Task: inverse folding
């Protein structure tokens, strides 16, 4: 684990995405109409993702535990693709990119888990960092 | 959570993949030559993935806790893409698809976390189920 | 921890309750209309409770880890009181009473956590076992 | 999860209670004489509660992880009722009310779990905040 | 992780020990008289150890999750040495040696943590398996 | 849990050791040649230890959660003994001795778990603090 004792606290944000691709419009309708048998897919996956962001250092050996001071989770539907956007903020010595990416992956996996009884063709794509600020280099995905 | 009290134990296996796409051959070389500063990327990510598979029901609300009786993790390098393959087996009433997919995502995220100091352009793709056996329907990804 | 190696697997169910008492009808309305700023209180608390049931043996030293084969979470509104009902099932050597009660307490605490910005007078009451079946003695709360 | 990046660190304390109501004086005697078969109920439940306070953000999605700088656990016996008092302190941007309430509920549940072999009539009552200081509003339960 | 899908369930037990060596008789007296400021060292370390046994597969990547059906924790004082004995039982396809050893190490570490304010010279020794039964080979430490 | 709200942040380091004693040179060779069937013992045990350090407050009731800002894990082979050295740093109000000792014990236990299929005579010894700096008293083991 990298030594960060000499670094300064700064506000750091990261936005990560995951794409959940379903195989039919019926699946999108069931999510929006809240008729999926396991429950409200967006609300429950948000709960899982909020917890998942906080558990990142429990899963990744080199990841520093840090004070998660904000997590926001949004969904955007575009045809058969649902874009999951996870924004994380901290004021600490190291960034929250991996936390945001882990949160996005947990939200996407939970959607998969809740939807698999009604749709066998779901795939998870493009888990990636879209934007980060704070720290020595900012970054913005050029294709965003 | 779905009621599985009436179901029978059968041998169930699932194989999931994740693709880690790096941005240059130098990254692949550093992994293979074990010169990545954070350590041996394949061995440490395998450790993270073995633990991650077991933690799936801690992260996903509807996922049943179950006896993980085998987890295997393999890596295949193809140009700038590294395919992570996670195989999980259980003898239980419900399958291990989500466990395998979660394991694949943790391995991929850990590779990202260990590699980001040397490669800023890593993306995670195609986290999906490749194959499952046991339970009421077997499945094999047609493009595998 | 009690030795259960000599016991037999039987189907066991437990139903526990918790009462969340809010201080005004506005709070009830906000829950039902899904206008609570932190999100959908019932769906997110259900997610927390499903995870909480599974984490019971992580929190209580003498509690045996066991296969949770069903968890159901229901809400009943009666005036300013919301009754949380958690049903848990297993086929194992020991019962799931404490798991159901822990689930009920986590659901209730999460409702408190989500509602405290809009209602300062929330109390949690009567976390208790309502019913259990299986094992050497069945039980039914006489006042249910 | 609420954004707290703009808030200042202040000393914050919270005291929460839970009431464990047993059904006979024999149970109280067994606790005090340390003759409960599962062990010393007060000491072991204190251990569970100290761990439970720290695990609050693992269980409640919107709860910020924060530095727990003190937890104290006290018991007061009054007839057949045992009052569990949990005091938590932090110096951080947000309070520890829910942490104290979760700690009180874990202590109470563990007492229930250790006592159920000798007393089938235990109930948990009145898990509530008694007092908080620090942050924008202090609070003291008027009936305390 | 080794594939155990083909193995049969048998009763398996393991007994592990750890030695906690303190530096003065005053420490032993404080433990026995329950005057250690942090609380009852034996009861609280037992609680930590019971939880620790169950968390073994969360910490060790290759360790199979399994049903812990009994854990017993005993202490034997011999001069300045306290022997911690942890017995674990399961009926499963693989043994509980590492679980017993992890439990012994957690009990010993917790004793260290509770005692360090009053004794700066504590060491932990001889964490080892004393006995195992069940599985393809039984074992008994010859020096026990 | 000790109240640390009045204490100041200082840089604190701790170095702990564990000794893993194997029973034959073949075991040492298998570790060095990376021919142990379960995988690369040093890299995977390092991953387990990095996670283990962070989980210390989840296992020990009185241990404060704190920002782990560095963990380093080293191995030194001397005949049939492997010395595991774990260095932990924080800038906080309380030290990281127990975290370093827990990390050392998890690394050692994982080595045991990975090696037991090829060596039945492994013991873990001398888990102890070698050095600490920061806080009101520094300390250096005189025999180091």
Result:
């Amino acid at each position: 684990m990298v030594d960060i004792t000499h670094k300064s606290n700064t506000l750091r944000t990261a936005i990560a995405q995951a794409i959940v691709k379903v195989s039919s419009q019926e699946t999108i309708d069931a999510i929006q109409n809240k008729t999926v048998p396991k429950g409200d897919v967006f609300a429950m996956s948000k709960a899982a993702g909020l917890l998942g962001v906080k558990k990142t250092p429990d899963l990744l050996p080199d990841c520093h535990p840090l004070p998660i001071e904000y997590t926001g989770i949004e969904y955007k539907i575009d045809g058969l693709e649902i874009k999951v956007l996870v924004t994380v903020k901290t004021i600490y010595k190291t960034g929250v990119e991996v936390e945001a990416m882990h949160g996005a992956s947990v939200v996407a996996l939970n959607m998969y888990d809740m939807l698999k009884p009604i749709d066998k063709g779901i795939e998870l794509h493009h888990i990636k960092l879209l934007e980060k600020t704070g720290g020595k280099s900012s970054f913005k995905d050029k294709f965003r």
Summary: The mean pLDDT of chain C is 94. Chain C touches chain E at residues 1-5, 57-59, 61-62, 64-66, 92-93 (CB under 8 Å). The helical segments of chain C are 25-32, 41-54, 56-59, 97-115.
